[in-house]
Automatic annotation (TrEMBL):
GO terms for molecular function: arginine binding; identical protein binding. InterPro entries: ACT-like_dom_sf, CASTOR1_ACT-like, CASTOR_ACT_dom, CASTOR_fam, CASTOR_mTORC1. Functions as an intracellular arginine sensor within the amino acid-sensing branch of the TORC1 signaling pathway. As a homodimer or a heterodimer with CASTOR2, binds and inhibits the GATOR subcomplex GATOR2 and thereby mTORC1. Binding of arginine to CASTOR1 allosterically disrupts the interaction of CASTOR1-containing dimers with GATOR2 which can in turn activate mTORC1 and the TORC1 signaling pathway. Residues 116-199 form the Cytosolic arginine sensor for mTORC1 subunit 1/2 ACT-like domain. It comes from Piprites chloris (Wing-barred manakin). This is Cytosolic arginine sensor for mTORC1 subunit 1.
Length: 269
């Protein structure tokens, strides 16, 4: 419904959403499986079959977006590990490989993925949710933060690869469930009694992937981060965007994460 505009870029693909849950029938409000927990079973196999994915973690669960044209390869790749369902009129209908066999093309061997640079700003982030009935109480503040509040832009010519800070705010509303990522300073502007987080109230640090816009044709970008973190049993909250990918990890583990990713970079050279 958005009018065409010279200021709006639209990716030349239609995407479908995969929701990965523990038994295939839980609602979106179930316990998140976690990006690192599905690194070996979903993300890595799709990368090996040359399927590009967008990853969207939320407070409640994790979603993987795949291009509609890649669906036959996705189903053939995951059918051995998962029960796969498609939603029809609100009902979950089982999907088998036979349903898409006519559209399946054996994927070409994927080239060695590019190891993109990673940057870790000093900004500390919070992962939050809001009860839907309290959303009107913070709507004005949300609009102000989303559209009118901007930190000074980071200069691309900075001498250090590490960023001092980064402007990042994510708001998602999926089937009534709200998920927000904001920096700790921005959180102070909101009423504390309306923002819900885990009982530990942990803070997160970010690893941003990509020195320039990544595009959508390359595969293996999410796997580049998720696989080493999964091997080290480090949880991560992952958000792909139009230009860059972002992985949030618990603040106390950021030094180990940077070391793991640096080792992967060095070994890939």
């Amino acid at each position: 419904e958005l009018p065409p505009s010279e200021f709006m870029q639209v990716a030349d693909s239609t995407w479908l959403v995969l929701s990965v849950v523990s038994n295939g029938r839980e609602p979106p409000g179930c316990q998140a499986t976690g990006v690192t927990k599905i690194a070996r079973s979903v993300i890595a196999p799709l990368a090996e079959h040359h399927v590009s994915v967008l990853m969207l973690s939320t407070y409640q669960t994790d979603f993987i977006l795949v291009r509609e044209r890649d669906l036959p390869v996705v189903i053939h790749t995951l059918a051995g590990e998962f029960d796969i369902y498609r939603e029809e009129s609100g009902e979950c209908v089982p999907v088998t490989c036979d349903d898409v066999s006519n559209g399946f093309l054996k994927p070409k061997p994927a080239a060695s993925p590019t190891l993109h640079p990673v940057q870790s700003p000093q900004t500390r982030f919070c992962v939050l949710t809001v009860a839907p009935d309290t959303l009107p109480a913070i709507a004005t503040m949300l609009i102000d933060v989303l559209f009118y509040s901007h930190s000074p832009p980071w200069e691309a010519g900075a001498s250090s690869q590490d960023l001092d800070s980064i402007t990042f705010f994510s708001f998602s509303l999926i089937e009534g469930y709200i998920s927000i990522v904001m920096d700790a300073e921005t959180q102070k502007r909101f009423p504390s009694d309306l923002l819900l987080t885990s009982s530990t109230g942990e803070l997160w640090r970010m690893v941003r992937i990509g020195g320039q816009p990544l595009g959508f044709d390359e595969c293996g970008i999410v796997a580049q981060i998720a696989e080493p973190l999964a091997a080290a049993d480090i949880s991560a909250y992952y958000i792909s965007t139009f230009n860059f990918d972002h992985a949030l990890v618990p603040e106390e583990g950021i030094a180990e994460v940077i070391q793991l990713l640096q080792q992967r970079q060095d070994s890939g050279r």
